[in-house]
Specification:
The protein has 147 residues and is mostly helical. Helix content is 63%, strand content 0%. The chain has one domain. The two termini are 13 Å apart. Keywords: Membrane, Transmembrane, Transmembrane helix.
């Protein structure tokens, strides 16, 4: 999913929290978690280009380096953490912080599911345990070498 799409939908989620939950910080957490989860892509980016200086333009246009990657780490993109957060929210009597965090991360991952088909990724690609079992190797997680 493109960063601008995550920005727009996370903004809508944050606005919903602001309107219905009220505290500004809850809206900020929902909004921020829906966007900043993508910072885990930095690991993949640096795994490919550890000697080169960081370039925001290259990072935001991941298509330039996606085909060169050998691994898919993205440690924050996983259903296990999201399920854990929702359980924590439920058993924590719907703590506003945990609920906002879980909502932002869930929205982001649901939006990213569209990538599964376009990048020819395995249906379990967003499970950390699956990626760990596959050694985080891109060719084990993707059906074709174009993701």
């Amino acid at each position: 999913m493109k960063p601008m799409q995550h920005l727009i939908f996370s903004g809508i989620l944050g606005l919903g929290f602001l309107i219905f939950i009220r505290p500004f910080w809850a809206a900020l957490i929902a909004f921020s978690s829906g966007i900043f989860i993508d910072l885990d892509h930095l690991i993949d980016f640096w795994a490919l280009k550890p000697a080169k200086p960081f370039n925001v333009k290259d990072f935001l246009h991941s298509e330039k380096y996606n085909c060169q990657k050998k691994w898919l780490f993205v440690f924050l993109h996983n259903w296990e953490s999201i399920i854990g957060l929702w359980l924590w929210a439920y058993f924590g009597h719907w703590s506003t912080i945990v609920t906002a965090l879980a909502a932002g991360l869930t929205l982001h991952l649901i939006m990213d599911i569209a990538n599964l088909r376009s990048y020819k990724m395995h249906p379990f690609a967003y499970f950390l345990i699956f990626r760990l079992i596959k050694g985080f190797k891109k060719d084990e997680i993707c059906y074709e070498n174009n993701c």
